[in-house]
Structure formats: structure tokens, C-alpha cells
Write a structure and sequence with these properties.
Blueprint (H helix, E strand, L loop, with lengths): L9 H8 L2 E3 L7 E3 L9 E4 L12 H6 L4 E5 L12 E4 L10 H16 L3 E6 L4 H13 L4 E3 L9 H7 L7 E5 L8 H8 L3 E4 L13 H9 L10 E5 L5 H10 L4 E6 L6 E8 L4 E7 L2 E7 L4 H17 L3 H8 L10 E7 L2 E8 L5 H12 L9 E6 L8 H6 L2 H6 L4 E5 L3 H7 L5 E5 L2 H11 L5 E5 L7 H11 L13
Parallel strand pairs: 2-3, 3-4, 4-5, 6-8, 6-9, 7-8, 9-10, 10-11, 11-12, 16-20, 17-18, 17-20, 18-19
Antiparallel strand pairs: 1-5, 12-13, 13-14, 15-16
Helix pairs in contact: 3-5, 4-9, 4-10, 7-8, 9-10, 15-16
């Protein structure tokens, strides 16, 4: 069996971090901060979390085969004899609060400095993870591609993803997130993207911002890290386009590429055909006609695919091959995954949108639900949890979803959380399913309501834990043999 090439040598580790290795390190083939997912050969970083100190898990990491553990110098004697450790005292350019986190940042910087890959950074209020995954998918067909896993997009996720990047990767795709102003600047400075993409700007995390314009300014920070002559990619249809353009023009970008349905967009959708399980897009990419099938449904994903094609063009990759690859794209778990459910002698259909929520993403999910054809006596059912971090307008944002619910022709709405009660009470009685304080309290009402022919969509902010409803539905009504639903005639 062929062994993977070492990701880091001892000399490279010590040079990048300024640390000292004690003991003989095993081959370093990855990097981790979590013993639950650690793989043999991973370099374990004992960073300090909000609740736990990673040093408490060093022995477990080494016992599970970690290549070495990165620890604070003063803690290194605690692990004598347990296995190889890299003792670090912090980095001059780091925060100083956590020498291990500083070392991870330094190693990430070293990974970026040695890389010759085409590097892409993605941010946006909605769709950044799906767009990152789409880029991973299409670029992997054209060369070794390294990308963020899950939503590793914050102050530890970005440097960890960098530290994991193989030296011979041809493409790198990094998701960059934020909750507050100024958070993107240091992350994009680490990534130093050749291409930076903003999917869209919406009122997400608005309680931390003075206005939507302030959110646009925060998203526009991604362009500050662009390498000289790099490419900024912006949604031409978004109302914040002028503000994002100003940020791009103030950066070191050599060019700006726009995407959308706007007649002046460089990557323009001429026609989008929406089906319940896929979409078809007729586009013009920098003057080149391209038609492709997208294996993920929904208008929002079709629009983001234009951004993907803009990135492919900017990288100089193969547009035709990318278009073919998009047909095999599938939604990530919690972001549109489809599951058929066996109920009695018939079937229902589940759309799992349970990974987080904001007004824009719920509207998009409702629109997708509206395109699903229900069976005889079947209903469209929305199960919605609170949207958080919306500030003083939170109640109004929830209440205002009544219009999109009506437009999507949703038959029943179930809500979890005190904020979603505002939507529940704004609906006509005929559309009210049940309202509960938590997703756990709502669970049995949803489970007992489903009948053959129904289509049910579940969505809410992560802390509301709407995923437990998805898992309960799958567990009770699993049907591995079911076929996807048909499109609504339009």
C-alpha cells in the first residue's frame, strides 16, 4: 500500500513555527484540532477552545496515532514519554494569547508561501459553503484540489485548512466567514487569494452591524488580501454591488468579473430552468455560450453556479469540463439534501435545509419547496426554526416570511422558537401546523402529521437544532428504494 507523502518534515515544522520537536515525530500527513476526527499521522494542535484546553487531549491524540502534538513550551514536560511533541512559545506576528494557535497560523502561512496553486477565497451572506463545495467538485476533475472541510471559515478554521494544504496542490479553495466587522481582513491576509468571490450580501448577523451597507463593507474586506493583479468576482444583481465594486477597485485586484442576470454581467444567465431535483442554465461566460445541468436544485444555487463558472474562467481552467462536472454535483448535508420517506404504502419527500438560516436562505428554501410536485392529497410542509442574530428587527423579519410562505403555496407551517412564533401568528389558521418553544417539543407533531404524497422542508439556525427533526424523520420513515419526485409543470 502506497504511503501518502509527508505534509511536513521536522525541519519545516521547526522553521515555520520557531518551535522545537521533542521525540521522534512520525510521518505528518495531516493536521487536526479534534481527537474525535483525528487520523493517524495528523499533527494535533492543542489550541485553547472556548470551553476546553486542547492540552487536555494531547495524550489521547498521541495514543490515536497523531504524528506529533503541538503544545505550549511550558506544557511540554507534561507529555514526556507520551510521544513526539512540538513545543512552541508563540509567534511574533500572532496574538500572543495562545502560542499553539499562533503556531498553527505560522504553519498556515508557510503552506501558503510554498504553494503554487491557484487560490480562491469565497465569502458571502448566503451560499458560501455550497459555492466552495461546487468549486471543490469541478476543480477536482481538473487537478489536485484542496478545500476547506465543512464550514472551517473562522480564526482557527482558515489557518488549519492552510496548514493541511499539500505542497503540490494545483487548486486551493477557502471559505471565509465573519460575524463582526474586521474579521475577514486577517483571514484573507493569510490566504492571499488569487481570486476572491462574494456570493451575495444579505441581512445576516445584522445585530452586529449598523446597516446592510456595513455588512457589504465587511464582506468587501475579502478583496484586501488579494495578491497583486488578482481577480475580484462580484454578484452584479445584488443591491450592494456598487459598494463591493468600490472595495475591489481599492484593492490590488487586476480585474473585476461580475456574474448574474444583469445585462452587463460578465458571466450572465440567459435562461434558468428550475426542476425539483436539478436546474438547467444557459449562460454566457465572458462571451462564450455555455449550457449546463446543475445537480443541485434551486434558483439560488443556479445563480451561485455563475460565480463558480467565473472562477473557473479566471483560473484558466476548462469551462466545458466544469460544465459537465456540475451535472454530478449534489447538495451538502443540511443544505438541500433530498430523501424519500416511506409512509404506509406510499412515499413522502424530505428536503434537509437544516444547516443554519437567515431571511434570504429561508426564502430560497421555500421557493425550492414550491417546485416539488406533491402526490395525491399530498401537501407542502415547512418546518422552520428561529433565525438568530437579526437584531431589533428580528420579530419583523420572521413575520415577513408569511408572504414567501403564501407565494410558495405551502400548506402547513410548523415553527420552533419564540421568534418563529411571529410567523406562525401571521399565518392564516388553515396554514398553521404547530408552534413549539424548541425543536424537541415540535418533533412528535411533525412526525405524526406526515402522510403519503407530502413534501416537507426543514430549516432553522444551527442552535435551534432543526437537524434533530431531519434525523427523526429519516429514522422513522427510511426508504432507500424511493425515487425522486417529478417536476411541477410550469
Amino acid at each position: 500500500m502506497t504511503q501518502p507523502n509527508p505534509l511536513w518534515t521536522q525541519d519545516a515544522l521547526e522553521a515555520a513555527t520557531g518551535g522545537t520537536v521533542h521525540g521522534a515525530p512520525r510521518a505528518i500527513t495531516g493536521a487536526s484540532i479534534d481527537t474525535r476526527t483525528l487520523q493517524p499521522g495528523d499533527l494535533f494542535f492543542a489550541i485553547k477552545g472556548e470551553a476546553r484546553d486542547g492540552h487536555d487531549f494531547v495524550r489521547a491524540a498521541l495514543e490515536r496515532g497523531a504524528g506529533a502534538a503541538v503544545v505550549a513550551t511550558e506544557r511540554a514536560p507534561d507529555f514526556a514519554g507520551a510521544g513526539p511533541v512540538l513545543a512552541v512559545s508563540g509567534n511574533a506576528s500572532g496574538s500572543g494569547d495562545d502560542p499553539v494557535l499562533d503556531a498553527m497560523r505560522a504553519l498556515g502561512a508557510a503552506a501558503r508561501a510554498r504553494s503554487r496553486a491557484g487560490i480562491v477565497a469565497v465569502t458571502g451572506s448566503v451560499g458560501k459553503t455550497g459555492t466552495k463545495e461546487a468549486l471543490r467538485h469541478v476543480l477536482s476533475a481538473q487537478g489536485m484540489t484542496h478545500a476547506s472541510i465543512a464550514s472551517y471559515n473562522n480564526h482557527w478554521g482558515v489557518p488549519l485548512t492552510l496548514a493541511r494544504m499539500p505542497a503540490d496542490a494545483q487548486f486551493g479553495v477557502f471559505e471565509i466567514g465573519m460575524n463582526h466587522p474586521g474579521e475577514i481582513v486577517p483571514l484573507t491576509a493569510m490566504v492571499q487569494p488569487d481570486i476572491a468571490l462574494v456570493t451575495t450580501v444579505e441581512p445576516v448577523h445584522i445585530e452586529h452591524f449598523a446597516s446592510l451597507s456595513a455588512i457589504a463593507d465587511a464582506k468587501g474586506e475579502i478583496f484586501s488580501g488579494l495578491k497583486a493583479g488578482g481577480t475580484a468576482i462580484i454578484n452584479r444583481d445584488n443591491p450592494s454591488y456598487p459598494r463591493l465594486l468600490a472595495h475591489a477597485q481599492a484593492s490590488r485586484a487586476g480585474r473585476v468579473i461580475t456574474f448574474g442576470e444583469h445585462p452587463e454581467a460578465d458571466v450572465r444567465a440567459q435562461r434558468i430552468v428550475l426542476r425539483p431535483d436539478l436546474s438547467v442554465v444557459d449562460a454566457v461566460v465572458m462571451g462564450i455560450p455555455v449550457t449546463y445541468q446543475l445537480g443541485t436544485p434551486g434558483r439560488h444555487t443556479a445563480m451561485n453556479s455563475l460565480g463558480v463558472m467565473a472562477v473557473v474562467h479566471a483560473l484558466g481552467a476548462d469551462l466545458a469540463l466544469a460544465a459537465l462536472s456540475l451535472a454530478a454535483l449534489r447538495p451538502p448535508v443540511g443544505r438541500g439534501e433530498r430523501t424519500a420517506l416511506a409512509i404506509g404504502a406510499g412515499e413522502a419527500f424530505l428536503v434537509d435545509e437544516s444547516y443554519n438560516a437567515n431571511p434570504a436562505s429561508i426564502r430560497a428554501a421555500l421557493a425550492t419547496l414550491s417546485a416539488i410536485e406533491t402526490g395525491p392529497r399530498g401537501r407542502r410542509i415547512a418546518v422552520l426554526g428561529d433565525m438568530l442574530e437579526l437584531g431589533p428587527e428580528g420579530e419583523a423579519h420572521h413575520r415577513d416570511l408569511a408572504g414567501p410562505v403564501e407565494a410558495a403555496k405551502v400548506d402547513l407551517v410548523f415553527t420552533a422558537g419564540p421568534l418563529m412564533r411571529n410567523l406562525f401568528e401571521a399565518l392564516p389558521v388553515s396554514r398553521r401546523g404547530a408552534c413549539a418553544a424548541t425543536s424537541a417539543d415540535l418533533l412528535e407533531s411533525v412526525l405524526s402529521t406526515l402522510r403519503p404524497g407530502d413534501a416537507v422542508m426543514v430549516k432553522g439556525s444551527n442552535s435551534i437544532r432543526m437537524g434533530r427533526i431531519v434525523e427523526a424523520l429519516k429514522a422513522r420513515y427510511a426508504n432507500a428504494q424511493a425515487e425522486p419526485p417529478h417536476a411541477v409543470a410550469r
